[in-house]
Design brief:
about 110 residues; mainly beta; Archaeosine Trna-guanine Transglycosylase, Chain: A, domain 4; 5-stranded antiparallel sheet; 3-stranded antiparallel sheet; 1 helix
Length: about 110
């Protein structure tokens, strides 16, 4: 049985928007939709969101380098396919699974 506790909650305008599931995670998970232009405090630094973030999607807790492991639940869920700025959306457009084929153009054409 996998158990975990929430380590941190990011609040924007008194609404809980992002959660840090495990202290080792380098991404935060969106639990309330966030909009472009909203400011998020990440480890004491304010970052403005550059895109809308849907529930269940992730943002980078810190700047991530290409090929760096994406850590969620305290374990790797994949790798960055490009550099990702702190606070940026992390999803299939800039990460891939290291375990199963990602549903992206690259996986379809073998790039």
């Amino acid at each position: 049985m996998l158990t975990f506790s929430l380590i941190g909650i990011i609040v924007i305008n008194n609404i809980k928007k992002f959660i840090l599931i495990h202290e080792a995670d380098n991404v935060l998970v969106c639990c309330q939709a966030a909009e472009t232009g909203e400011s998020v405090e990440l480890d004491g630094e304010y970052v403005e969101l550059t895109t809308n973030i849907d529930i269940g999607h992730k943002i980078a807790r810190q700047s991530l380098l290409r090929n760096q492991k994406i850590i969620r639940y305290g374990v790797s869920i994949g790798s960055a396919t490009s550099d990702i700025a702190k606070g940026s959306h992390v999803h299939i457009h800039n990460m891939k699974s290291d375990y199963i084929p990602s549903h992206t153009r690259q996986s379809l054409v073998g790039e």
